Structures
1.
Amino acid sequence: MDLTQGTTEEKNKRAKKMMLWFAIISLIMSFAAWTSAFIVSSSRPDWLKDFQLPSAFIISTVIIILSSISFILAKRALKVNKTKATTLWLLTTLVLGIIFIYNQFDGFQQIINLGYNFTGPTSNVTMSYIYLIAMVHILHVVMGLICLLVVIYNHFKQKYTTTNMLGFELASTFWHFIDILWIYLFLFLYFVR
């Protein structure tokens, strides 16, 4: 298929989707670098081998999976023109995203309660990596929430239809990406010592 063919609107849609995928690939490379550095650093003598991830991280993993499911249900409702159901599922996704971030900060508090801060004399390189990886992911969840707020606003303005869902689809793709990314990060931090 020739990417230069089609109407201006079709080209614009393809360009926006391609830009999102370039951003996602860039993020994958960044997190791959941080997790690689985590593996390399694990040979240090001061590396914690027996740490436990905070229970709040487990809860937040379940919550972000539920948020992806609610976003899928919102998209399905929109496709069959069920406005109220779309609104309900979008708002559910937003609330779950906020609860995810709350649980992440609760996880940081659990780490602090164990005696490990991000920096300073009570820090540890292992926990500093966990802070860094989780905090950068939280920033991307915040970006996802901003995108979601734009989608909710546009939904209330009735911008989306069964045939015009570009902004909705872009936000959905990004949201599912940060969901999958967290699952990867959680499993990585859980199993890699």
Note: Helices lie at 8-41, 55-79, 83-113, 125-156, 166-191.
2.
Amino acid sequence: MKGKPLFIRAEWDEEAMVWVATSDDVPGLATEAVTMEDLVEKLKVMIPELLMANNAVVEGEVPFEIITRRFELAQRVER
């Protein structure tokens, strides 16, 4: 399954303190990890497994792109 990369959304869950990944391109994908590096490693295993479970032909590598979103607040410091 080569070609255009699958798009994976990863959003920071401030309450749970984990990255949460979902995707419209990979049916059933919903996973989380404390670090982005751990999330990537989980996705490398889960994506091919879920694609095969959804009857997709998976041969060799499956390219994917992670689009992240994390909201923070910045405040001006009085001097």
Note: The chain has one domain: 6-69.
